[in-house]
Amino acid sequence: MNMLETRIREQLDKLERTGMLRELQPPSGIDLSSNDYLGYASDMRLKLAMAKAIWTEGCGSTGSRLLRGERSRFSALERQFAEFKGTEAALYFSSGYLANLAVLSTFLDEGDVLFFDRLNHASLIDGMKLGRARKIIFPHANSEALRRLVTSIETSGQRFLVTESLFSMDGDPAPLREYADLCREAGIALIVDEAHAVGIYGTSGTGLIEASGIANDVFLSINSAGKALGVSGAFVAGPAWAIDYLIQRARTFIFSTAAPPPVADALRVAINLIAEEPDRRRKLLANACLLRELLRCRGLDIPLAESPIMPVILGENRRAVVVAEELQSRGFDVRAIRPPTVPDGTARLRISIKANLNEVTLYEFVQTLADSLERHQK
Ligand SMILES: Cc1ncc(COP(=O)(O)O)c(C=O)c1O
User: Fold this and answer.
1) Is the model's pTM score more than 0.85?
2) 35 catalytic per annotation
């Protein structure tokens, strides 16, 4: 035990020395760091739906969906989401992390090949590790490099391409149309993680698959319900045969207690609101556009994409932490993102904009950030 404690303490000291030690810190100040892009997490209509359901259903589901944890409200929710997303079927998982593990560990077999964007989220990386396919990592969002790899790698098995649609730490979109063309030509199964796009993009707000017009070329999408939808969990959406298979085989679905049933009621309201309140999405993207312009005017290299996520890359871990702390002390809840969440040497502030922020706040924030960056130069 002593040996273990010594080893772990050394690791903790090393994290501290290199500016990588994390602390659990509850929200405080103006939200420029959460994924509650549309403000639904604290919406009264969602709260009421959940509270009413707690009253009739209780809190916990009491078991796996395959046992006594099943409820008709989960299947009703899944039908509603599938209709919203325009797919045959959907399956609700208690988190996006678990949904990604499920998809990549269930469908990828020996002899298959998986093409995988270098900057895909940790949950996709962990899913990839569980899958038995050969893994080919391609340069971030680079459809030309991907095409070259696809033509040079032979397999008699199935090929898969996995990408986020909007990248969570860089805020840039994947070239989905190019990917769809390639996947159609080469018979590759395209899997798209829409965690940061569902609820925001497309005429109906279903995500970047819709906005890119590639729905017919996607095998499965994974849609987190804990970000723009404001609640928690995630939907895997796709053909009925694939969803049926997940129910039989996905270990993170089968061997885990189902989500609290009242969550389904809140999510049903959230999905309706996405359809009924397109103005929120417009306001979100208008705010994002203004903030991006303000940051770029200060000389910050923010990607031009229409995206609510803006990385301010500072490089050094300590610099990112010090600037984030200073912003927090001035009332702006901005968090430092460090390796291994992002590649070494690219520690950053991940600024995520919200629909309910006003212009004055954005101007004040940018001034405060610029002052802080000046005080803490490289
Ligand atoms: C791209 C991406 N996929 C999946 C997830 C995991 O989703 P969840 O938070 O619902 O577990 C996240 C979470 O941050 C994410 O950013």
Assistant:
1) yes
2) yes
